[in-house]
User: Which sequence fits this backbone?
């Protein structure tokens, strides 16, 4: 009699059903640390450069005289959003706002944004944040490396300044550093600064050239005094770059600069709760230490038995806001569903949960879905068959195998073999526990047919009787 056994070193862990709404396995706030985007040193050199350029353009007659905006929306100088995704990239969103213009000119820590909140910063040195900081999220350094987010002209105008060629991987404040930036004067004489762009990514347009609305200006980067890739967008009423002439494009009750006059075609809300991206990962995302690139560990192809990390990246998630999460199998039935309430309010945040795909998980296209703030987002991933792990390989390509292993509680096992002589002849199957107690007996099983397993978790021995003289034993774990 041939007796062969296969020993498994499977973890003998009974995996209970997931709780209704389990706490996240990871995540939390993503905060772009603050640094003075435009240090006093940089500001004075920028203003000197702009004044010299303006003078030269005027002398050469290349600077259109400012025209008073007419009282019609078509002629008003209003801004479109100054960022967009590169062609071919489609995310629900890709940014968050870390800082608005600080309306309170006292310091330090006297903060007031246009909406009477404190989403801004200032410094003891007398620095009040003068612009709007829009950072890219998630994986901003990777997005910079891949040219994923473009800076575009919020309004048409004339280029009156441009600086490029400066290092673009800043991680902290720096006083002597220069940024890569474009400065545009609009038809009404107002001026917008677009700062911190990626080195050598700037438009080929030169000082004096016209740019159209939505024209490409560069790639979001982290040049100059910056802690990570973001656009610093700063606006002045005219070419005198003083506090008195500063504009905050957002209209609101605490806007002391231009009050209730918005400079946006469509002003986005103060909080814009939104999912930026859904990602399936094979391991938790690694954000790393600036300036190293993030390692998203994202994956869209999995096998039965794999662990999948289901991650959601947000901007403006607000305290108490609920997200409904579901993971759908290929037939649209629910594999897992749960919900989560944001424990705080974030400019940017992320949360992830991991689940093990059963070893008999349906093969095909799965969907990870969220419902948040009335918006549904989905990402699809594929599940392929796992390699059976309980395999008894015999001579001449013969084998006996049982899959899936470890076995989930919800489904039977399948037994397959290829054996000289036996071929498709039915076999007798007995399933024992390790104490020698018989649990299952099937007198006739064909290759590929399911065999039942005991419901209790643990390790079992599956005995396959091919004939009176030929018997194989495999150990199989029941989860
Ligand atoms: Zn800034």
Assistant:
């Amino acid at each position: 009699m041939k007796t062969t056994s296969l020993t498994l070193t499977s973890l003998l862990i009974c995996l209970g059903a997931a709780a209704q709404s389990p706490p996240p396995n990871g995540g939390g706030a993503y905060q772009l640390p603050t640094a003075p985007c435009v240090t006093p040193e940089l500001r004075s050199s920028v203003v000197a450069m702009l004044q010299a350029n303006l003078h030269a353009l005027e002398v050469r007659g290349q600077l259109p005289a400012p025209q008073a905006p007419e009282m019609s929306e078509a002629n008003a100088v209003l801004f479109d959003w100054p960022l967009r995704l590169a062609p071919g990239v489609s995310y629900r969103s890709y940014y968050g706002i870390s800082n608005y213009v600080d309306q309170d000119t006292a310091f330090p820590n006297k903060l007031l944004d246009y909406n009477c909140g404190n989403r801004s910063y200032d410094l003891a040195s007398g620095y009040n944040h003068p612009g709007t900081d829009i950072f890219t999220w998630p994986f901003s350094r990777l997005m910079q490396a891949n040219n994923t987010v473009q800076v575009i002209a919020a309004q048409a105008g004339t280029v009156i300044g441009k600086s490029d060629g400066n290092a673009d991987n800043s991680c902290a404040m720096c006083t002597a550093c220069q940024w890569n930036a474009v400065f545009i004067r609009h038809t009404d004489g107002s001026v917008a600064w677009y700062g911190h762009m990626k080195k050598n990514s700037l438009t080929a347009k030169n000082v004096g050239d016209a740019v159209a609305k939505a024209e490409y200006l560069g790639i979001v980067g982290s040049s100059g005094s910056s802690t990570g890739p973001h656009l610093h967008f700063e606006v002045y009423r005219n070419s005198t770059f003083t506090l008195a002439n500063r504009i905050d494009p957002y209209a609101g009750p605490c806007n002391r600069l231009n009050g209730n006059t918005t400079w946006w075609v469509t002003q986005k809300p103060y909080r814009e709760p939104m999912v930026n991206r859904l990602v399936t990962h094979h391991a938790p995302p690694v954000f790393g230490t600036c300036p190293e690139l993030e390692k998203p560990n994202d994956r869209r192809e999995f096998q039965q038995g794999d662990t999948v990390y289901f991650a959601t990246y947000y901007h403006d998630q607000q305290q108490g806001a609920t997200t409904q999460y579901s993971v759908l199998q290929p037939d649209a039935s629910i594999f897992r569903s749960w919900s989560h309430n944001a424990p705080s309010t974030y400019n940017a945040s992320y949360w992830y949960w991991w689940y093990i795909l059963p070893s008999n998980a349906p093969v095909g296209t799965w969907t990870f879905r969220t419902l948040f703030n009335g918006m549904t987002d989905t990402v699809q991933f594929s599940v392929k068959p796992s390699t059976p792990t309980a395999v008894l390989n015999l001579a001449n390509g013969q084998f006996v195998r049982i899959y899936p292993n470890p076995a989930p509680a919800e489904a039977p096992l399948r037994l397959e073999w290829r054996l000289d002589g036996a071929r498709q002849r039915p076999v007798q199957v007995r399933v024992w526990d390790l104490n020698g107690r018989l649990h299952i007996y099937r007198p006739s099983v064909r290759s590929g047919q399911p065999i039942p397993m005991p419901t209790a978790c643990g390790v079992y021995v599956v005995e396959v009787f091919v004939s009176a003289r030929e018997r194989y034993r495999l150990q199989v774990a029941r989860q």
Summary: The chain is about 5% helix and 35% strand.
